[in-house]
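Changelog excerpt

This revision adds worked examples to the README so contributors can see how folded entries look when concatenated. The first example is reproduced verbatim below.
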Amino acid sequence: MTTTTAPKKARPTAQAGGATDMSELVHYTPEQIEAEGWLPFSARTLRDKASAGTFPHSKAGGRITFLLRHIREIAAMYEVRPVSERKRAAAA
């Protein structure tokens, strides 16, 4: 006797309200960030500023790592807006 199975359903890649891309969940070491040149900081500086609480980071597994979200936040911390934009924002 032959049996048939129901077709397999595709697994969702993310929970509702969660990350839409699995790359958002990858943890990067300070050395990887330095090697890729994503931020203008050495691995030592990234680790020191994270330990001091200056930079957002993750401490999964007891090691300092960074998610893409953290890397974007660090880059935004050093963004400088033109004077004309700052004056408009202050007046609002």
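The second example, added in the same revision:
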Amino acid sequence: MSDIPRGALNRTARLASLPLSAAGRVGLGWGQRLIGRDRGDVSAEMQRRTAEQVFEVLGTLKGGAMKFGQALSVYEAGIPDEYAEPYREALTKLQNAAPPMPPSTVNRLMAEQLGTGWRTRFDKFDDEAAAAASIGQVHRATWKDGREVAVKIQYPGAGAALKADMDQLNRLGPVLGLLIPGMQVRPLLAEIRDRVMEELDYAAEAANQRTFARGFADDPDFLVPKVLASAPKVIVSEWVEGLGMAKIITGGTVAQRDRAGELLTVLHFSAPERVGLLHADPHPGNYLLTADNRLGVIDFGSIARLPNGSPPIIGRLSRLALDGRADEVLAGLRAEGFIPQNYDPDPVALLDYLSPFAEPLRPKEFHFTRAWMQSQAARLSSLSSEDSKLARHLNLPPSYLMIHRVTFGSIGVLCQLDATAPFRGIVARWQPGFSDADLADGTGI
């Protein structure tokens, strides 16, 4: 049987090697600084070596390690170009490295999930996998009514492998701090772990997909495939044909990049208002651009439930920051728990620190580039003493962690796409609290 590699000693040893190696590099870096090497050069070299090892190890594993690598991939645009190539190469391997299950295993799993007569539900079923996912694989088939379908089957042992991986990945906080400047890594790891473990339940994923399919039915801009059958470890849904976003990133036209970027932005901000859910896994492998120029969305395992829509305070604070209303920004952040009650930053200094995050909202259209993302990462990793003190005192309340991660992840994909998008207009249309009317009537207070 071919399934997710899960030998405890082997997996643990590979993942455990990461923090040990990183600690050695930090020590070496301090030594090199003491003998006169430039701090920037030393930090860049440490980042490059750490990146190469992280993705080399993750690339040889599956399950949680692969899912974590995918989640981390959205930050790739913030890495300087000369060091980003190892990330891109390793992430490509992560996407394509899962071993296929033999037909005998596929048949056994399908019988367990859909019954011994499962083949009678199909006109045709390809025993060879058409694509690999992190915790399963996809087969192409023809449903009994003639529709082309995708059949996603979970690998045997996926649950044990995921739990083992995520327990080990919790040790990587110090390592990942080198790779994602300015990010509070331990809460990020905990949040990703929760989302990854949820993805084991294909029945729940199918329910999420059905909700999205109803909410976006007949939409001229989106294609969410309908679910035809589901079980705890199998999902049968309509097949979606299109150009994957990863290919658009590497070789798409300007029009394709801009279209994909605009639709990804609309999906992110509109879904909480339309269906009460946030699509929480914004890596490029989950999206396609169809022949009729719609965005196909094909994975719903990681979802945040926002039954009341996106919190209006997010839109209100963003708009106040744009308008330069420093005192109100400070008061709003304090009220929501972003600033401790016993800390009193200068409102103007706080606004200066936060303003670059709102930059895409200023013009009618914004060009998302790797250079812009890299400048933000560099700013966060080389803060002045006052900015550094301010950053250390800011909190990210748990209720906002998921939204924060997904928003910045989506922006990371926009930068990989090199897309120009009407970001402000989309936010004004879909994010409560941001529009002129919302600001006037106090929405978000």
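Reviewer comment on example two: The chain has three domains: 8-97+161-183, 103-158+199-238, 312-441. Residues 312-441 form one domain.
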